[in-house]
Write a structure and sequence with these properties.
Elements: E1 2-7, E2 12-19, E3 27-35, H1 42-60, E4 64-68, H2 76-95, E5 100-103, H3 105-113, H4 120-130, H5 140-199
Parallel strand pairs: 1-4, 4-5
Antiparallel strand pairs: 1-2, 2-3
């Protein structure tokens, strides 16, 4: 599985591509940051992020795009910028028909470090170790993007099993409902026929 991780942000949008499967060594195919100037117009910044992500999609052809799920922070401006950059990443993937997976920061931290409260230094150190890199990727946004990709690769098998279980349960419930409705209709028809027979 090849995953493009995106750590959304207006000024620095981290991007990283990891390939592999759960339970086996993973390989980093690329890591970087899409930057936009803080003093630029918002529309132009979003276009720059879109162009940057499109270049990564063209270069690496990921099967999935993993994006950090936006969560509440005290700084509303930061949340808005993160949400806007996140939406651009999802749009770029959806336009190409690439599945998008959202993971919360705590999910990512827990996946790569074992603790949902790990700090950026710990996440960077674990990413370096898991991908067998010489040094932690800089800046932290780049390391976070790789962590997102790793998180998805490791969590995908369990998520797929859960989705399959839900789908099977839904299908069985629908079949039971249909069978019940058919039985009810049959009983109603038989009752009507018997009633007509007695009237005749």
């Amino acid at each position: 599985m090849r995953v493009l991780g995106v750590d959304p942000g207006l000024t620095r949008c981290g991007v990283g591509v990891v390939e592999g499967v759960a339970g086996r060594p993973l390989t980093m195919l690329g890591v970087g940051v899409v930057r936009t100037p803080p003093d630029a117009d918002l529309g132009h910044r979003l276009v720059a992020i879109e162009q940057g992500i499109e270049e990564w999609l063209d270069r690496h052809h990921p099967e999935v795009v993993a994006v950090e799920r936006v969560f509440s922070q005290h700084n509303v401006r930061t949340v808005m910028g993160t949400a806007q950059a996140s939406a651009v990443a999802m749009l770029c993937a959806a336009r190409r028909g690439i599945p998008v997976a959202l993971h919360t920061p705590s999910e990512v931290k827990a996946a790569v470090s074992g603790s949902g409260r790990a700090d950026k230094a710990q996440v960077g150190a674990m990413v370096t170790r898991l991908l067998r890199l010489d040094a932690p990727p800089k800046p932290a946004d780049a390391a976070d993007a790789l962590a997102l990709a790793i998180c998805h690769i490791w969590r995908a098998p369990a998520q797929n099993r859960l989705q399959q279980a839900v789908a099977q349960h839904t299908a069985k419930a629908a079949a039971a409902t249909a069978a019940s409705a058919a039985a009810s209709n049959t009983a109603s028809t038989a009752s009507t026929t018997a009633s007509k027979g007695r009237t005749a």
